[in-house]
Each structure stands twice: as C-alpha cells, then as structure tokens.
Fold each of these.
Amino acid sequence: MSEAFDCAKCSESLYGRKYIQTDDGPYCVPCYDNTFANTCAECQQLIGHDSRELFYEDRHFHEGCFRCCRCQRSLADEPFTCQDSELLCNDCYCSAFSSQCSACGETVMPGSRKLEYGGQTWHEHCFLCSGCEQPLGSRSFVPDKGAHYCVPCYENKFAPRCARCSKTLTQGGVTYRDQPWHRECLVCTGCQTPLAGQQFTSRDDDPYCVDCFGELFAPKCSSCKRPITEHPVRIPSLGPDPSPLPPLPED
C-alpha cells in the first residue's frame, strides 16, 4: 500500500497533481496561493506563484498592475516617482509637479539647474540678459518692467550720462543746470579746480570758481581794486531724484 501524499492544507491527495514543496510540507497550488501569496495593491487580487511580483514600500503588485496612475504606462522597467501614494512615470510627474520655464515653456526637469526669481522659473541657459542676451547665471542683474539686465547693459541703457564726458553715472555725481555731471567733470573753466560742493558762478553756461570769475569778468572796485562778484551758488550732490537748482544770477 503506497504512502499518503497529501496537501498540507486541504489534505487532498497530490498524486498526479501539481504541487509546491515548502518547509511545512507540500501544498496544492490553490492552497499555496491562498496561504502564501500577497495581495496586489492595485487590483486586490492574489499574486499567484506563477506571476511576476513587484514590491515597493510594503506594497505588492502584479507586473501588469505596476503602472503610472495617470498615463497607465508600465513602470516595471521604467524610472518612476511616488507622489501622495500614487505612482507616476517621470513624464507625468514633471508635467504635473515640475515648473515650466518662463522663457521656453518647457518643463524644468527635476535635478536640473534652474533659476527662480519673482515667482518664475527658468532653465539656467534660458535666463538671459534682455540687452546682450547672454546667460545671467549667478551674475548680478537688474529687473525692469519684466525684463532682466546685466549691470553693464542696464547702466548703458538707463543710467544718466554726464553732460561733459557722456559716460554713465553709476553712483554719486552732481546736478548742474538740470543735467547730471560726474563730480570730477564739473571743474572751473579757468583753473580746472573741482567745483562739486564749492561756491561758484557761471558765464555763457561755463562754470567758474569765485576767484577765476572775479579775475576774468567782475568789475573792479575803484577803491580797493578787488573784483566785485555776484553771490555765488553751491550745487547739491546728485541723489536718486535730483532737484533742479534755482536760476543762476545774470552776468
């Protein structure tokens, strides 16, 4: 009489049937799956012994159930991301959660270099100076009405220019006859002494220090022979919004 060869779970004979051997004994296929198989987190069905099983963060999946929750692309052999317990392929993740470049409109891929300013995002190579169109990168820039300029382009385009040398004034400066001047450019027409912060007067729009004006143009006192000069003026420094000077005395 042959020895019994029964399923360790249901005790049915396994002679002539497919079975799976375990440390606890042999199991018929249905009993084995019911006892040991994991439940698919997607379809809630058992993952049979003959199915390819995928595992991610304490969740088990049939191979066919392991897919992007948006486009349904299989993630079995694809890079993916988990967002709020949902599996997403890289394309869907970038489309849903990544920023769009304000210049080219393309997605700024996770991990790529990007620049952010004023609530907007750019690819590093798309963030360009509105003047020279060179990448700004980590360089200093000046925003102006939605545009962005490197410092040289901004100064060349917007900074005031000296009435004498026509070069830009980046800081400091003085105002004379409602025009900006470099402090070093506003000098006495006669002796070339700097006039910024000093008392001076003018003739034919040319500024003169008090001494030169007196020597060159002022009438001389018949008694002491010294020049009789008008009241000179003192010019203010050029601020962010310089105010015009009062009219100069007539010659």
Amino acid sequence: MDTMRDRFAPVVSRLLDEDPRVAVVLAEIGRDGFREAERRHPDRVINVGIREQLLIGTAAGLALTGLRPVVHTFASFLVERPFEQVKLDLGHQDTGAVLVSAAASFDWPAGGFTHMAPGDVALLDTLDGWTVHVPGHPDEAETLLHHAVAAGDDKVYVRLSVQSNRQGRVIDGRHFVTVREGRSGVVVAVGPVLDTVLAATEGLDVTVLYATTVRPFDAAGLRRATDAAGTDVVLVEPYLAGTSTAAVSEALSDVPHRVLGLGVGRRELRRYGTIEEHTAAHGLDAASLRARIGGFVGAGRVPAGR
C-alpha cells in the first residue's frame, strides 16, 4: 500500500492544474515529487531552500496576494522551528495556508529527536482558528487534502504519517465516525491508531469513535456517544498524550465525567530503534492499550442515561 505522503504530491499537483489560486511552498524536502508541476507552474511552485522561517513567511505573502498556499516539510520543521512565523505571519496577519507535515511523532526514528514532533498539535492549540486533520489512511489523506485546499482562506494543518490503518473510512472533514458501540465508556481513536485501538478493545463493552479531524473538536458527536455509553472517555492520540483532554472536558462540562489521555509520553527516548519499538515504549501497542483502557472504563463509571 502507498503511504499518505505518496498521495500528497500527485493530489496537490492536480490541484495546481485545476485551481489557479493554489501554490506550493517547499523547503527542499519533498521537492522531487513536484518536479513536473514546477515545470508546468514555475510561478506557483516555490522552493525556498532549507529556510523554514522563510517557508512560512513566503506562504503568508502569497496568501496576502489571494493565493492558497500549500506548505510542506517535516512536522518538526513546519510547526516547531518556525512557530513564531506561524503565530505572526499567518495568525496575527489573519492569513490562511495549508500546512502539510510528514514524519509525524516518530515516523523516522533514525533521524533522531530533531525529526520528531509529538508536540505539534498541542503547540498549534495555543493559537486561535486552526483546523487540524489527522488522517489514518492514504485515502483519507487525499480526502482531507481536498477539504483543506477548498477551505476558503482558513488555517489548516494536515498531519501525514507512514503509520496507517488497513482500510480507509468515509469521512467528511468535520465529524467523528462511530466504529463500534458499547455501554461502558467511550474510546476516541485519532487517525492511524484506530486499528490498534480496535484490537485493544476487542470484547470490551465500549463505544469506539474514530477522529480524523480533531480541531474543531466534534463535541456534539462525543455528547451523543456518551449519552448511550456513559461519560468515562479515553482519548488515544498519535501525538502528545492529553492534547485533547481539555476539549473533552469542555464538551462534557455540565455533567460528571472522567477522561484518560493516552498518547506519546513526554520522556525523550534516546535510542533510535524502530517505529514499533517507539510505539511500545509509549504504551501505544495493543497489549498496553488494552491494559490501560480496561483498567479505566467502568471504575467509578458515570452510567449512561444520566
């Protein structure tokens, strides 16, 4: 199966052909995928070199002229390194862009901590007005890229990963999808962790919601699920643990509830290893998730039909 990033350049290259507002801004990484598009649209495919602050500044400038810039590099270089420019050039100037990342939390362990960005979504959460898509399959990535580019002049982050579920789901870029129904709690699985969550919760009487868009957070969808399953909520996110717990608490602020945030831990793992080893070390493998979810749901549970 191809990866989400394999879909990125072909999808955006077609959008360049179809929509004269679309522009692409790169910082060397990913340039090979746009060679032909660069030949066809030399004024709308821009490579700034290894200058990530300039990457964001250029995108903001293009947006101010009426273009819809699509900006791409590794997550650590797209969100963390040029964060001041994301905050000011895009946020403060109220200009829109589509930031499309690669490498996710630890997709390339051999790159070391400089190429890991488990805090990217949490960092964007400090800013106002961002839509955040976290696809779990290449088909979903393609759908969400189209949504992002078509989203007027909004600020959108699309988080691509080599980790993937076995099959794509029908998604709309806004709402959670109910994958399994139960009555002893709700588990929200974000993006590429869905398959692992389904394996971990096999036989448990829980509702599993699938989230590929986490900002805005589908509070209404969560409320509907907790009406039937009770207000014990477990979040399993492929980035910093607890990133969305505040969103859950806000959605359920008027009712007693408990929330457990699972995801990538704060402790830095200083050995390269493999993706699978990092997943297990952060407790995101199926066996670890089953123990943590099973130990949480039902203990002091607030019953359904409150």
Amino acid sequence: MTTANDGTLSLQQFLPYRLSALANRISQSLAVKYSKQYGISVQEWRILAVLGEETKLSAVAITNRIAMDKVAVSRAVKRLIEKDLVVKDLDSKDQRSHELTLTTNGLEMYQQLVPIALEHEEQVTDTLTTKEKESLLKLLSKLDNAPL
C-alpha cells in the first residue's frame, strides 16, 4: 500500500503522513476562523478546549491529553495567562505542582469558540454519511488504541 514496485515510499499513501497532513489542514482552517477574531493560536485553542472540558489540570496532564510538545504547551499557557484567559494556582494536593483553570474571560471565550469548532467539524465531515462518520470515529479509536 505504501511502497512502489521499486521499493520507494509513496508519501501520499503513507498513513502517518496522511493523518498528520489532514490534521494540520483541518486545524489550520479552523485557526483561520478564530485567530483573527479572538487572537489565539491553535495551541492556545487546544488548551482552552481541554480546560473547558476538564476544568482543572496540570500542564503535564494537558500535554498528555492534547499530545503536544511540553515546550509548546508551556509557551501557550504563558500567553493564555498574559491574556487573562487562564490562571495558574498551586495544586492543593501537591504543593510542587500547579493547576491550570480558565478565568471568567477564558470560560466566556471557550463558550464562544465551541460553536465555531462544532460548525467547522460539521463542514469537514459534511461529505460523509452518518454511518461513515460513525465508522471513522471507530477506526480512529482503534488506531489510537493500537500498540505503537
């Protein structure tokens, strides 16, 4: 599937490349929709999204959840704190760690961004039938849980 008869790799048929390229295209096209109006990056949006869902998380937990480089997460968190969208407090259970939460401004922005993200998802999957969408999610879960 990913090699030609001469033993070369067909990048356009190589699954890791295809998944990465598609994810980047979808993320960037969504970023165009919210970056001008809200002034946030893809990384900042992902952190807002995970904190909107989980409420309180450490930077390490965020890094693991969104599968982003810890340096990129750290920089994005710093920008979100500077924009008064996220606050960092000492973890009540572990004084060596910090918990990140959305500020009131951060929660308001998150609530404004969710409909934009959901509409974008609908546009991306609009050409798929309901059954194809269900199959896609099952296949992605299966791949995500595969041993690497």
Amino acid sequence: MDLLLLSNGKVAGNTKVMEFALPAITELLTRKNVKNVVVIPYAVIRGSHDDRTAMVAESLSHLDVNVTGLHRAEDPVEAIRQADAIIVSGGNTWVLNKTLHDQGLIGPIQQAVMQRGVAYIGWSAGSVISAPTIRTTNDMCIVSAAITPSLGFVPFQINAHYIDATIEGHMGETRDERIEEFLIVNPHQSVIGIPEGSWLAVSGETMTYESANEKPLHWFRLNQERKIVAPGTDVTELMALDC
C-alpha cells in the first residue's frame, strides 16, 4: 500500500491545502505515475464539494494530473475503479463514513488501495477512516445513523489534530482523558495521536512518521506509559498490531 495520512489540511502560513506535506505528496504521485486523481469531499459540511475539489486541484497544479470530484461522477464505484490516486478531504468523519457506506464505496476503495496499489491520501477525517473504525474521531455525530467500521488500512485507531494540552477554566475532559476512556472500554487496542502538521507515510511494508514542525507522535495503550515518537522515525511496528 501507499498511504499518506495527514493530521490536518493546513498549518499556519500555508495558503494551499496539504501544502505542508506537498513534497511527500509530489514524490508519491510522481513515483506512481499518477494521472487520474479522484477527490472524495463528502466530509465537507460548511462549504462546497466543488470548492474543496478545486482546492486540491490547485495544490496539485504543478503536476500533470487530472483532478475530479467523486460527487460529480455518474457512477462513483466506476470512478474509484478508474482512479490512480484517491484523496479524501477532512470535515465531519461521521458524514464521510456514512456516505461511503451508503454509496457502497467501502469495498471498492479497499480493493483499489489494497489490491491495485492505488495511492491514498487523506487529511483529518480522510485519515481517521483509514483505521478499523472511526471511534476516535473528534467530530460530533451529526447524522442519525452512527456507522463506525471504516476502511481498515491500518490496524490502530487514529486521533487526528491531536493536542496535548489543557485549557484554563475548562472543566470537561481533555483529549488524553477521552483517549483513556476509549482504551478502558477497548483494552486491546492502540490509539495513535498525530498532531497538526504531521502525517503517517506507508510505502509497501514500511511506515514512517513525518512532521513539518517537529511535533512528535503519541502512541497510547492501556496501562502503559505513552510512547513519544520523533519525526523521521520508522514506525512499521504499528502495522503489526493485533487490534
């Protein structure tokens, strides 16, 4: 598989979506000789699917690729079958995952990425759905039917936009406390917190952790001290987790 799982779409100073990871994205799409990029913008709620697709096209304008939005396809399943690369936008994870299930796209995307070697790039919600379930998303479940199983490209749960912080005067649970609650209920699983400006890169059998701002990855397991992982580290061991 070839995956780039970004925590978010932009960091401070960026003018284009995915700009902070653009060198890695360019390398991947060039190496795989990608010509046909399909953007899945279903997670976008407070905006236009066309606008989000156009944002991705602008970021990739330096490459000789054709960028189309899956929402415009007459046959979305066939569009996935014809794709050389799939890019999944951030937004609301619940809406994104439910839409993929409703349109019968989970299987075709899995086949494209895991069997045909189609490149997969996601940010925020687009990264969260690469886990076995979306139960560690930060998003509100704004749809009436809660569907949690997702693509399962990686065996661990992902928490995007991870922040190790407390807010003065805030009496609700911290991000760490929410993750701890998940692990108490799901004691054999791991949660990977990827902060802003960082991503997981899978190439074949190898996975590395990368960051544009030197922020570390956080690996949470029940009753174990969290593991802090520096950018540039080989984290292939995460792909062997039995979750």
